[in-house]
Amino acid sequence: MRLKRPHHSPDDFRQLRDCLLAIEDALRQVSPGALRQRGGWDQALFVAVLERVEDLTPPFQAALTGYLCCHDGARPRDQVAALLDVDRLSAAYLYWTRLFPPRQPDESMFVLSLLHDLGERVYTALRLLDGA
Length: 132
What we know:
Helix content is 76%, strand content 0%. With 132 residues, it is mainly alpha-helical. It contains 5 helices and no strands. Helix 4 (77-99) runs antiparallel to helix 5 (108-131).
């Protein structure tokens, strides 16, 4: 007896893309340009952004699983790699920033560079999804 694979739903794509857009929006708040406009480091904003990304991680992972596992045919390799980068780096960076949160502006640059890198990965994944 053959196992029947679930059929890919357009909702999987939409949910995945919506999660990526929400993560991108949250990360944009702590981008270098946004911080310059605000006048520098803001600990409360940083905590709020981390909490938002943490809240979005489980729905992103569920949407990613649905998108990658429940479909007809293969996904483009670069698209899958970009999505897995977002998944892997979001977990690693959130874990790192929770272990070693910056307490003052001079400690924030490393964490901000991690979040900026994650933002670039999210942007890349969105670009590849939209091109597919």
